[in-house]
Design brief:
InterPro entries: 6-blade_b-propeller_TolB-like, Ricin_B-like_lectins, Ricin_B_lectin, SGL, SMP-30, SMP-30/CGR1_Lactonase. There is one protein chain. The chain has one helix and 39 strands.
């Protein structure tokens, strides 16, 4: 969907300071496509991040080479580089490329009336030859208001007052490219689904036990970890949960509950359990695994068959991605084998799903009503488990077998890894400033609750999105 034209100057540090002084939240950096003449997208040729790579028009695919982030410093960034006028030229026809970000006027752009004006030359981003053909190179040219100089930027979003994320811009989330988290405590059978409760300044997480009974169903409890004291306690026994999330009002824990093959809600004050989704068109789910919640209350969840145990399949062999809104369950996708971790971007416009058995992370555009658009590939990563996102929109996806968290920019660029234990399952941001990443990882049971799972933590540069 094309976004409306934005009329603003990105380099507005003084104005941002004034707004912040009034207590009004400032707009966060936005990431998405820049569309132009003929509905084509601004694209980095060949998807390469080498300095000097030409920027062109191309049919919109939503791929990493077309994902641009607007910065409060006036920059437009893709693939870790900045939109740049070659050699800082001010001449008509000077080529536009990507280059290492350096803060010069050649890399600062102002949007006004749909035009993108370069600060160094005062000239406009222009599709050469008034052409919309794939491969049309971009240049700067004297501003004339023609259709080949009209650009639609990704829409910025303004967080609600008191929201979980501070205003950007944000830098690299990782202090270094390869990090190792610190163990907080182990000795649990199989930990999953951490979520931060800001009201109590505690972390909730699931401890799953080995299967038992005639259908070999795994029992589980929700634990509470209090960082200020280092203590762990059982919050809800026999919760039947796996992945956990938090409602936007902070009053309810949303749980993927495999004991009843459902999605449930636990009231934080009373611990009372209610069912949000019991089945799809009369057929029981496999074993809901991971869950996230949108701003409008839409719940998104994955339904692999890991914890279905010996219960009969009612999904005709499919493993699925669903959403539930106002009690109505809708199918998002039934073609991903073993979908697992599921996360929403902070602006609510992108849904990420890890394909545990497909070797890919997928993304879906999210519409205003909570429905989703066509699926596309986000990154290649095998054996995905749970994940989370940070306030800059970076995606954290776990691979179970090697105990690593893989961090990707919103454009799909690999930023680095965080190691934790042996078999990592999930992660969530928390702490007073939201910058501690908590990770569940360890050694699975060989029978009789003999697993040894622990909670790990690491401080990062960017705070996280708690939902």
């Amino acid at each position: 969907m094309r976004t409306r034209h934005l009329t603003r100057t990105f380099a507005v540090a003084a104005a941002a300071i004034a707004v912040a002084a009034l207590g009004v939240p400032t707009a966060q950096a936005a990431t998405g496509t820049i569309t132009g003449y003929g509905g084509k997208c601004v694209d980095v040729t060949g998807g390469t991040s080498a300095n000097g790579t030409r920027v062109q028009l191309w049919t919109c695919t939503g791929g990493p080479s077309q994902q641009w982030t607007t910065g409060d410093d006036g920059s437009l960034r893709a693939l870790g580089k900045c939109l740049d006028v070659a050699g800082g030229s001010t001449l008509n026809g000077a080529k536009v490329q990507i280059y290492d970000c350096n803060g010069t006027a050649a890399q600062r752009w102002t949007s006004s009336g749909g035009q993108l004006v370069n600060a160094g030359s005062g000239k406009c981003l222009d599709a050469t030859g008034v052409s919309s053909a794939d491969g049309t190179p971009l240049q700067i040219w004297t501003c004339g208001g023609g259709a080949n100089q009209q650009w639609t930027l990704p829409a910025t979003t303004t967080p609600p007052a008191g929201g979980p994320c501070p205003s950007g811009p944000f830098g690299n989330p990782l202090p270094s490219q390869n990090l190792t988290a610190t163990k907080i405590k182990d000795g649990y059978n199989f930990l999953e689904g951490p979520v931060w409760d800001a009201a109590s300044q505690t972390l909730l997480l699931t401890n799953m036990h080995d299967g038992s009974g005639p259908q070999n169903v795994q029992a589980s409890d929700i634990l509470r970890f209090t960082p200020s004291t280092g203590s762990f306690s059982t919050w809800v026994a026999n919760s039947g949960s796996n992945g956990l999330s938090l409602s936007r009002d902070g009053k309810t824990v949303i749980a993927a509950t495999h004991d009843q093959r459902s999605v449930s809600a636990y009231d934080l004050a009373t611990k009372q359990r209610t069912t949000l989704a019991a089945n799809y068109q009369g057929h029981q789910f496999n074993s809901p695994n991971d869950v996230t919640v949108g701003a409008d209350g839409t719940v998104y969840f994955t339904d692999p068959d890991f914890q279905r145990a010996d219960r009969p399949d009612q999904m005709s062999g499919h493993t699925d991605v669903f959403r539930v809104k106002n009690g109505v369950v809708s199918l998002i996708d039934d073609s991903i084998r073993e979908p697992n971790g599921i996360e929403l971007s902070p602006d609510g416009r992108t849904l990420y799903v890890g394909g545990n058995a497909t070797g890919k992370i997928y993304k879906y555009p999210v519409n205003a009503d909570g429905s989703t658009g066509p699926r596309s590939d986000f990154a290649a990563l095998g054996g995905t488990d749970g994940g989370t996102v940070d306030c800059a929109g970076n995606v954290y996806q776990i691979t179970f077998s090697d105990g690593k968290i893989h961090v990707f920019s919103p454009a799909g660029q690999a930023l680095g890894t965080i190691s934790a234990g042996q078999n990592a399952t999930n992660a969530a941001f928390g702490g007073p400033d939201g910058r501690t990443l908590y990770i569940t990882s360890g050694r699975p049971s060989s029978g009789g609750d003999t697993g040894n799972y622990g909670l790990y933590g690491i401080r990062l540069n960017v705070p996280g999105w708690p939902y």
